[in-house]
Write a structure and sequence with these properties.
Keywords: Membrane, Transmembrane, Transmembrane helix. 11% of the residues lie in helices and 35% in strands. By secondary structure, it is mainly β. Strands 4-3-5-7-6 form a 5-stranded antiparallel β-sheet, with no helix packed on it. Strands 9-8-10-12-11 form a 5-stranded antiparallel β-sheet, with no helix packed on it. A two-stranded antiparallel sheet has the order 1-2. It is elongated and about 110 Å long.
Length: 195
């Protein structure tokens, strides 16, 4: 054991044993060192941590996870009615995902021929098409130049009766009532149940 030299008030040197860095916790039975019990977190702290993890996971899956970017093929909501409206990536299954990004590219090239919504960000262009689901009913969302899910009995509702992938020709739709897109090739067959 290390010792330190010290002096009495009388000037006589004496030795002081060095202190150990670890406190003596005493000995248990059989010469084993007794350990202090671990403290547990209160239930409210465990619940707060669990909620925090859930919120981070939710935000990651909704806004960051693959498949929720604004690249072609992914879906989004749009806020605003001009060409530079705000685009928020969402899962295509989200009820608020009113658009699918059909293509991205140079704004000088423009969108393919069809009823695409164009969004510009500097020199970049995103061509958007509706994110319609077969059997779903939609009504105009004029504020955001979009369609939103609606009750099929709404006065301006349209129903998507069929989605045809791989074609842009609406001829197979009943009465030819459809909306065709060449990129990616898809046709939405439509009817107006409220009329």
């Amino acid at each position: 054991m290390d010792e330190q030299r010290d002096h009495d008030p009388d000037g006589e040197p004496h030795f002081i044993p060095a202190m150990s860095a670890e406190p003596d916790t005493g000995s248990g039975e059989g010469g084993e060192v007794a350990r202090t019990p671990r403290k547990r977190l209160p239930a409210w702290a465990v619940a707060a941590i669990a909620v925090g993890i859930f919120v981070v996971a939710f935000l990651f899956l909704r806004y960051v996870a693959p498949g929720s970017s604004t690249d072609a093929g992914n879906c989004a909501s749009v806020a605003g009615d001009d060409d530079s409206a705000a685009l928020t990536p969402l899962s295509c299954d989200d009820d608020e995902a009113t658009f699918r990004v059909a293509s991205t590219g140079d704004s000088a090239a423009g969108c393919p021929e069809g009823a695409y919504r164009e969004l510009r960000d500097g020199g970049a262009l995103r061509c958007l098409m509706p994110n319609f689901r077969e059997g779903g009913c939609y009504e105009p969302d004029d504020e955001n130049r979009a369609f939103r899910l609606a009750d099929c009995t709404a006065a301006e509702a349209i129903r998507v009766t069929r989605v045809i992938e791989g074609s842009s020709d609406p001829a197979p739709c009943p009465g030819g009532n459809g909306l065709g897109y060449p990129e990616p090739p898809v046709v939405y067959c439509l009817e107006t149940p409220g009329t």
